[in-house]
Structures are given as C-alpha cells and as structure tokens.
C-alpha cells in the first residue's frame, strides 16, 4: 500500500532505500498523516488513510517533535534531556522507516 501525496510540498518526499536520515534533516509528518491520542487504546496513534499505527512511548515522543522545525540532531538532544539514553542510530532508523513509507517527510537542514 503506497499512499499518494496530496497538495504541493517543498520537501523531498522520500528517501531512497539505503539512504540514511542526517542530523540536519528536519522531519515532519506528511500531509495525509496525523498523530493523535487513541482514548480506546490509551496510547498515541499515527493515523494514515485506512491505517492506524499504535505507537509505543518512544515512537510517540519522536513523532511529537517532528514538526519541520526541529532537526534530527535536536530531536535526539531533546529526548536525551527527557530520558537517560537515546540511541541516535535508533532514532534515525525509526525515521528512515517512516520516510520510506511516506508517513514522514524531510526537509534539508
């Protein structure tokens, strides 16, 4: 299932397979994706047309900071201030998977 983009965007919409997310990239949710709180599940969820992804705490914390203003490096720093350890490579891998699914878009930092 490969969603189509809606509306114009000034960002690169995909990262080719094997290409990583850099620390200077500024991630944001794609226009057709929404982060919300599911009262039924009592957890954050990512809503995508015909798909609901229930997030764990760390996934929700990362996506809450994906507003197009924070760089990936700033997201890692912010999460490091909240929690004891935040593996930089795991944050990048998580974002890379969401970029590959076109749920997150990156702007060049």
UniProtKB/TrEMBL annotation:
Keyword Nucleus: no
Swiss-Prot/TrEMBL GO biological process terms: pyrroloquinoline quinone biosynthetic process
Keyword Membrane among UniProt keywords: no
Superkingdom in the source lineage: Bacteria
Composition skew (Low complexity), residue ranges: 1-19
InterPro entries per the UniProt record, alphabetical: PQQD, PqqD_bac, PqqD_sf
Assigned keywords, A-Z: PQQ biosynthesis
UniProt-recorded name of the protein: Pyrroloquinoline quinone biosynthesis peptide chaperone PqqD
Species annotation: Streptomyces griseoluteus
Gene this protein is translated from: pqqD
